[in-house]
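re: ur question from yesterday

yeah so i grabbed the chain u mentioned. its 258 aa long if i counted rite. heres the sequnce exactly as i have it in my notes:
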Amino acid sequence: MAPSYQDLLLDVPAPHVRRVTLNRPAARNALRTQLLQELADALHQADADDDVRCVVLTGGPKVFAAGADIREMAEPQVAAELGEKRRACWQVVRDFSKPLVAAVHGYCLGGGNELAMLCDIIVAGEDAQFGQPEIRLGMIPGAGGTQRLTAAIGKARAMHIILTGETINARNALAAGLVSEVTADAGTRAVVVAAKIAAHSPLAVRQAKIAVRRAAEDALAGGLAFERQAFADLLMSDDRREGIAAFLEKRAPKFTGR
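ran it thru and got these structure tokens back, copy pasting raw so excuse formatting
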């Protein structure tokens, strides 16, 4: 088993299945840099462990992840300095070679939704809410959200979600193709799915994952590069500063377009 972490809980709910639980309930599992670094390390450990054939990623029964840690990202200079560390962590999740099943209850927003979309299968609870609300802060998704959401649910729906900042519920996410199924207990169902995957040939499962991911991801490279640059440019904007300040002060933002 991998070492213990501050922001994660690890356990083995079924043979050859490792469960990784995001564990910042007081912050709605906000994805601070420390959490992402611990997640990257946990996935490195799981990738190197031959006894692990599938990983379930969950935030528990109440919330998956409500997005980035806004307080950590409030200062543009700090956010820029953390950018490379965070990108490296996201890359580890993307490159994880074994099947990754997300179990989503409650809010799955911003970076949380981007994290779920990096998983190979998303099992949603009836209470799940998905969205990319970065536009409300004068920002855009910065970890693949503009590209993977469009690939998953199509341009029209992705444009609506990203440009309005609105969320969609689990049933609409299923109809749109964002999640594979909706159930009352996503955590239990995700373990069942993971155990079924873990019972198959590890070699065949890995090759199947690579083949499907290539079909889904090979065309995204250019768009992901543009998204990263646009996100970096917006870090220094007045609108971004106002959006963050308004969020922290619990008021409506006054954007100026600068």
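noticed a couple things. The mean pLDDT is 90. also Residues 128 and 170 are 5 Å apart (CA to CA).
anyway ttyl
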